[in-house]
Amino acid sequence: xxxxxxxxxxxxxxxxxxxxxxxxxxxxxxxxxxxxxxxxxxxxxxxxxxxxxxxxxxxxxxxxxxxxxxxxxxxxxxxxxxxxxxxxxxxxxxxxxxxxxxxxxxxxxx
Length: 110
Fold this sequence. Notes:
Elements: E1 2-10, E2 24-30, E3 36-45, E4 54-59, E5 76-81, E6 84-87, E7 90-95, E8 101-106
Parallel strand pairs: 3-5
Antiparallel strand pairs: 1-2, 1-4, 2-3, 4-5, 6-7, 7-8
């Protein structure tokens, strides 16, 4: 699984029939500190994520193992909306309300 931030949506009016009804999101890959790493991927949304959300996604054959994507021609799927990532004395908090996507805190912040 990989961490990314939802930076947009993808609309395709002409597509394979198996893609009908899938919400497609544009993700920007991030490191554990929440900073973008320059990668982007289009992923099917299985959990109702939206712009600014910090998410977990997977790619490859694992992307076709959710109820939403089973037997569909997808290579990436959003499987979770992240609340908090804790690592090395800091944590990354997913924030949707202000659309920033995340706020990085030091562990000593109260």
